[in-house]
Amino acid sequence: MDATEAQSAEAFFASAPPLKDREVIVARVEEFVRRRLPIGGTRMVCITSGGTTVPLERKCVRFIDNFSSGHRGAASTECFLKAGYAVIFINRRGSAQPFCRSLPEDPLLTCFEPDGNKGIQPDPKHAVVVQEAVTEYHSALKTGYLLHLPYTTLFEYLEILRIVSLSSQQLQRHCMFYLAAAVSDFYVPWNSMVEHKIQSGVGPMAMELAQVPKMLMLLRHVWAPEAFCVSFKLETDTNILMKKAEAARERYGMHAVVANELETRKQKVIVVTSEGQKLVEKDAFQADVEIPLVNFLIAQQTSYIEAGGVYV
Ligand code: 9Z3
Question: What is the ipTM of this complex?
């Protein structure tokens, strides 16, 4: 990567607002990574999920958002945990969570009912799914296999991703990055952002957005150069999807790029690796396309580890 790219990334972080609870997050990540040592035991994956927001005002009333329900990240977290991986789940506050995908939309209000004695009890209609979700989630937390780090803004997302990747360097090829979050390409730099709510009634408004530095490049080559890196490419125009995915793999040196089209993303994806393109589809017996996708990527990482890093 060239010096200008590294400089613009440094400038981004230097001007970003301070990350709330930074020390706590760093300590939790370091402890989580330490539990995976010595290398060769449990592998670790960092899954990003949901869409980042780009605030337009420091005291933020308005923001730009990127689409992602968080389903891909939540389902994949479940699959990696089942496969024995330790998972750092970086997700957008309020987006889908692992083990909760079969709960109704407002689980707290719908799954519980008054017991007639000033207390509450699970509604029998939902008792089984609630019990499964709570048991599986808490068991993953208690056994130290799941670390959940929520974000809202693009600034928080990139700060947390940098903390995790720098910390995970020591896991070398036994760490995977699975970057399913929908990350904004444009933003308003903090030092040029207005403090108060932008006023209306003054006619049309023009706003210039800066380009977000290419952090995938930094992650891959500087922050965690040995980790197995998987990024996602989302398009709505299928005619350009594969070209963009191939270009992303080459440009950023990703080990795999998962190409998906918005409308069919839950049924099929195409994974681009140095070996070519692989169609991964959900079959009639699988609940989610993430099951075959995660299995395929785990096998790819195994080859990467066994090849001693000579892979790309
Ligand atoms: C994806 O492509 C994800 O698969 C989806 C998942 C966001 C489509 P859902 O959360 O959807 O299950 O509703 N994520 C990456 C999207 C993205 O922003 N990629 C960037 C790009 O395409 C590269 S990092 O330029």
Answer: 0.95
- For 53-67, the DSSP string reads EEESBSS-S-EEE--
CA dist., res. 167 & res. 35, Å (int)? 12
Can you tell me which atom of ligand 1 is nearest the CA of 68?
10
Q: Which pTM does this prediction carry? A: 0.95
Strands 86-92 and 228-235: unpaired
Tell the residue nearest (CA) to atom 20 of ligand 1: 233
What does the pLDDT average to over 87-106?
A: 93
Do 2 and 213 contact (CB within 8 A), yes or no?
no
User: What is the distance between the alpha carbons of residues 144 and 161, in angstroms, rounded to a whole number?
Assistant: 20
Domains and CATH numbers, the chain: 3-94+134-226 (3.40.50.10300)
Q: Which residues form the pocket of ligand 1, taking CB atoms under 6 Å from any ligand atom?
A: 68-72, 179-180, 182-183, 231-234, 260, 265
